[in-house]
Fold:
Amino acid sequence: MARLAKDHWRRDKHSFKNFLALDRAPLDGPETLGGLNGAMVSGDTRSGSQTFIVEIPKGFKRKHDEKLASLEFFTLRGDLSLNGVAVGASGYIHLPQAGGGGEIRSKNGALALAFWNPNLPSFPPPYTQNTTLRLWEEEWLPSLPGSHSVMHKSLRRPDPYGGDFDGGPGGFLRVMFIGPGVDAPYEHVHHECFEEIFQLSGDVLLGDEGIMGLGSVTIHPQEWWHGPFASRAGAIVLVHTDAPMGLPWPPREDDYPIAKQMCCAYMDEEPWDVHAEHTPFAETAYTRLQKNAAFQKWAKSAPEFGDKVGRDVASSFRAAWNFDKQKKG
Structure:
């Protein structure tokens, strides 16, 4: 694995890494998660929002204070329960701020992704409330208009979709299915939100980022151009944003010159008889395509970020959003 920068977790900087391979140690806070063995995957220095990979020991029992933050868990293995309602692998638990809090337990231990969001903008109770669900019991929903190959299951709720925006006031947390052979041969940007994408199974090629296999996570800052992407055999990914995501995704006008060639090469060359592994782009075979003269000329002038609304707008909004004042108002 490539050496990570010390600030690889920052949400205003792009990173591509294996979250399962991050060095874990006892966490120094936040509350409820403090002392658990784990690692921070991403964080926002303004809002205090953080994502962790955490090991939850056998016999774990701890109460969550509803005043502190919204806390969500997605279990990768093992079991968790909230107020006596248990879920297993691929289970989801949400304790929203001002939702009454609750007691979290694990009988046999668990490995989980944990999402800590102080002052998460959300729909008021009873629309937002303590939640436990099993992913396999939920319905697949169409994610993109006119597409039957990209679907999702909503975790954070309510989760509006299908209009001009996807997700509630504080963004969405979804498990998404990408069908085999799906490609998007262009770059796009999210003016409204940051996103982090966790690979749970299958494969995805992300131009200039790498091949995503089990354990890959990519952090896309707000306004950061990314793509093209393709999936040879299909994929299941967990996607997290910190604000509603606009639809359709705005493409770059002066687009990536070799986008279609890269998607086609990936589809033709990646084997079906082995599982995809986390591979940074510099270590893939597809860097050869960037020696193209048209690409080299384009790359020298192409901006890294969009500027429709400026950087970090959603994060600044999150940081300024005071939960107590909103509740009183």
Summary: The CA atoms of residues 46 and 316 lie 7 Å apart. The longest strand covers residues 70-78. Helices lie at 259-269, 293-301, 313-320, 323-328.
